[in-house]
Amino acid sequence: MPARLALGCARQTGSGRASTPELPSRYRRSLTLMRWPWSSASDNQDDRPIIFPTNSVQRGPGVHNNQRVHRFLTLTIIDQAVSSVSNFLLAVIIAHYNNATNLGYYALVFTTYALVIGVSRSLTSDCLLTRSSIPNQSARREQGGYLFALIISSAVSLVILGASVGMSGSLQILFLTLACTLPFMAVQDYSRYIGISRHKPNYAIKLDIAWLVLFILSVVILHALGLVAVTWLFGAWAAAGAIIGAATARPHLVLSGTLGRLRYWMANERSVGLRFSIQFMLNSGVSQACIYFLAVIVSVQAVGWIKLAQLALGPIAVIVTGAQSALIASGHQRWQSGPRALIRFISLAGIGMAGSALLWTILVYLMPLKVGSSLLGSAWPEARHLVLWIGIGLVLGNFAAAAAAGLRAMRAAREGLLLALAMVPVTILTCLGGAAIYGAKGFAIGTTISYFVLAILGSYVFFRSTHVKSPDPT
After folding, report:
1. Partners of 18 in beta bridges
2. Entry pTM
3. How far apart are CA 459 and CA 273, in angstroms?
4. What mean pLDDT comes out for the span 376-402?
């Protein structure tokens, strides 16, 4: 090539600014066939001028997208960690100051809370996460979901309030407390997912930090007064969450046009939300509901041992829950790029979560007995025998959780519902059958077997769905 072309000298225009060098057609044709790293296929046109690179390094859009995804995943996991620290702290304090029976009472009321919040998330939050953020639609969708979450949780609170009339003692006080605070805690949880759906998990982190700080202050005051019974501790936790939930009404609760927002939500999300909620109740809901039957078949004390073993594995379960929330939103974006991107993303996430769960299970099981008893109370020796089986179930459950997140990222509610229906008899047979034969340990073994079956079926349904469904741009 002649030296005058290799130098790439630019001509000066009338404005004094350098213009792109004009090349003879024989050289321009050969140079346009070159693919620069930052160019796309459409950039290689014969009639487009060549712009020579400068000393600055330009990075492809994929690098920045990966950085955003990693940051989003990290912040969402941090949010879930902060959210679960208050739950974990509450359970540890109750286990430390109360016996296995009171811990069993707490397990029953917290299981009820988890079921209601899970249904509320399925009906509202998960639908929000699987929608693209279109400015003129997202505000109406967020406000309609907020109203729907408030209505659903209020209706369930009335049912809990009526059921608590037939109870007595500490159990009655716990359920009365839950009934009074549940609607506010439900909208606090939904508000977190508004931030996650906007890909701004900092907002969710702020809400959870506020709940945690209020709860810690309440515990300090209660401890100074010597009020460490399970009813006081749970009341402090629920009241802190209710206060933060009430504070979210100002930015998210719009009373004008309430019926119109509810109609908009129902018209767009009713079908998917109902399938998501039924799927949750048939899957996670059935396994959690087995806790109630465990109290009847074995004892409330056995429920306390199961809860304490799950509590010891709580930190890694926090990471898994946070990752699953992020997987739905991030997976939905990958799904828009094609099935292969989603399959690779979900597969790597499942392997990573399962490996983390296995490592934590080993560490907890090898922890000295005295250390565990000093941290988790007198019921730890009995609960330690269950940790290994529950931990293996958690490892297998991570594969199932990743597959479930992938299905929701595709909005494959029908496939997820069919999977949940198939798992109902398996879960009931393994969990309750194991409890009837071998008590609390049989229940733990049965849970592990059900997660094994769920991991296999869930992975199969996920991979099959990626080949029969196509991305929805809306």
Report:
1. 12
2. 0.70
3. 22
4. 90
